[in-house]
Amino acid sequence: MERRGGKVFSHFGSIEKLKQVYNVKLGWELSIKRAPRGMCVSVIVAHHYLLSTSLMLVERLWRKLEEHARIVSYRMESNICGQRWWWTVTNPVHAIQVLASFVGVTCSDAEARLTWIGL
């Protein structure tokens, strides 16, 4: 991240950096990995972050992934530690871009493609 005139600009960099941004900004644990039919994305929201705002944000992320990355399957698990959502998407490049833009990180098409190749 760099600071210019009072605004903070985030540039993509890597999946690890994106995971860190999700953790700092939202308190979520982000996981991304290859799946047989595309890519599996999961977020874990800890119990102490389970407010209606967090649940609305998860739903908003879900809708964005559905719209841009073609979700083929999803599931949710709840336990004493919090809640976890999994989505399998068939368009991983767009999914990476959606995940980045969701937290205000800029990610070009080329960066997303290189990230997908590197997974």
Model description:
The protein has helices at residues 15-26, 52-69, 92-102, 109-118; strands at 2-4, 7-11, 28-35, 38-46, 71-79, 82-89, 105-106. Helix 2 runs antiparallel to helix 3 (92-102) and helix 3 (92-102) packs across helix 4 (109-118). Mean pLDDT is 87; it is low at 1-9. The longest helix has 18 residues, at 52-69. The protein has a single domain (2-118), classed as 2-Layer Sandwich (Gyrase A, domain 2). With 119 residues, it is α+β, with helices and mostly antiparallel strands. Strand 1 and strand 2 (7-11) form a beta hairpin.
Question: What characteristics describe this protein?
Answer:
single chain, 119 residues, alpha+beta, Gyrase A, domain 2, 4-stranded antiparallel sheet, 3-stranded mixed sheet, 4 helices, 37% strand
Helix content: 40-55%
Gross morphology is globular
CATH class: Alpha Beta
Structure annotation, total helices: 4
**Any guess at the CATH architecture?**
2-Layer Sandwich
Number of strands: 7
